[in-house]
Write a structure and sequence with these properties.
Blueprint lengths: L1 E6 L6 E8 L4 E4 L7 E2 L4 E2 L8 E4 L5 E4 L2 H11 L7 H7 L1 H33 L2 H7 L3 H8 L2 E2 L4 H15 L9 E6 L7 E3 L4 E5 H4 L5 H16 L2 H20 L2 H9 L1 H8 L3 H17 L5 H12 L3 H9 L5 H15 L2 H4 L1 H6 L5 H10 L2
Parallel strand pairs: 9-11
Antiparallel strand pairs: 1-2, 1-7, 2-3, 3-4, 5-6, 6-7, 8-9, 10-11
Length: 369
């Protein structure tokens, strides 16, 4: 006799019961008036550790018991399945469990590191341009709410840079939907980035780092390189793919939703992968060489962008009240950065950052002159 709890399947009522199994495989209850049921007609849950077992009968009734050994004996006697007890055997094998955990971790890492980026690239390359524009809708609005404010650049400066941007586009096929906008960066500081819909955003803080428009053109070409390679779209698909993967593995919908809603933050703060940045650099360098734009302009802006986050630059801005203070301060910060021994220690950080090392990128453009 096997002790357990009986549910009739018609009401929520439950009662203690004694289950038996005859030598011919008929299963019944000693203290409940039911018809005996053949073993093959009863669905028995697999054994997982010491969790309760459930026997589901054709009439909808159910029997629950903790006596796993007794249920195993019935299953071993009457079941003809080659998989009987396999789950319990596997989860009881510590080496198998350890191997499974390690395999899952390695698979998860490989899939996130290589699988999702590869699949994202294939999807992005096959989607029509309209898909990119659709996925980018509303992203800039979210950024305006959280970080940006209206640009303080003069109308003359904006028109000048718009004309520069348009001139660059004339040599680029498929760039008709690219557009340039300006924002005051606030906490974002000196930055530029491309959105999936073809919008390229430049912050005032970046524009104010130089008085040479060709320096700005070099950064424009880099951002156009992101658009030509669909990096924003690929990054967005990767982020969404990561969310789907987390749901599939953990069932955690809330974390996955947070990942998707963080896409605008990712596009601004985290940047793209090292490969994507290198691809965008390659596009900019190729364009500059083809149309006789000195690659030194890109190297100069990289040095200024790097120095714009230094204490020297910000302290100088606070002290100076001159209209062209940003340019004077950034030039001083660049010189100090070149002499600053601490910069050498930051090379280790470059290895782990999402971008290739700044010095590596600068040297690449200067060697191409």
């Amino acid at each position: 006799m096997i002790k357990g709890i009986y549910y009739n399947g018609k009401t929520s009522e439950k009662k203690d019961a004694l289950l038996y199994c005859k030598h011919n495989g008929l299963i019944g209850f000693a203290d409940i008036d039911t018809i005996e049921t053949p073993f093959n007609s009863v669905e028995i849950s697999s054994r997982i550790g010491n969790t309760p077992r459930y026997l589901n009968f054709p009439d909808g009734s159910q029997f629950e018991t903790d006596d796993n050994d007794a249920i195993d004996e019935i299953v071993n006697t009457f079941s003809t399945s080659v998989f009987k007890g396999v789950i319990h055997k596997l989860e009881s094998a510590k080496l198998f469990v350890l191997f499974s955990v390690i395999s899952m971790v390695v698979f998860g890492w490989l899939f996130i590191q290589y699988g999702i980026p590869f699949v994202s690239k294939q999807i992005a390359d096959r989607l029509p341009e309209e898909a990119s524009q659709y996925m980018g809708q509303g992203v800039l609005d979210i950024m305006d709410e959280q970080w940006f404010s209206e640009t303080a650049l003069s109308k003359k400066k904006q028109a000048e840079l718009q004309q520069l941007f348009n001139n660059l586009k004339t040599n680029i096929n498929g760039s008709h939907y690219y557009k340039l906008v300006f924002r005051r960066g606030g906490s974002i500081g000196a930055n530029a980035f491309a959105l999936p819909d073809g919008t390229i955003v430049f912050t005032d803080e970046l524009i104010n780092l130089t008085d040479n428009n060709l320096d700005i053109a070099a950064i424009m070409l880099h951002e156009i390189g992101h658009l030509k390679n669909r990096h924003s779209l690929r990054a967005t698909i990767q982020q969404s793919g990561l969310a789907i993967f987390i749901i599939a593995v953990t069932g955690d919908v809330s974390t996955s939703s947070s990942i998707i809603t963080a896409i605008p933050f990712m596009l601004v703060k985290s940047g793209f992968s090292q490969n994507m940045e290198t691809e965008a650099d390659s596009y900019a360098l190729s364009y500059m060489q083809k149309y006789n734009i000195d690659p030194e302009h890109f190297a100069n802006m990289m040095e200024k962008l790097q120095a714009s986050f230094s204490d020297e630059y910000h302290n100088c801005l606070k002290k100076s009240k001159k209209p062209d203070a940003a340019i004077q301060c950034i030039n001083l910060a660049v010189k100090q950065n070149k002499l600053n021994d601490k910069e050498q220690s930051k090379e280790l950080l470059d290895y782990f950052s999402t971008h290739p090392g700044a010095k590596e990128r600068i040297n690449r453009f200067r060697m191409a002159r």
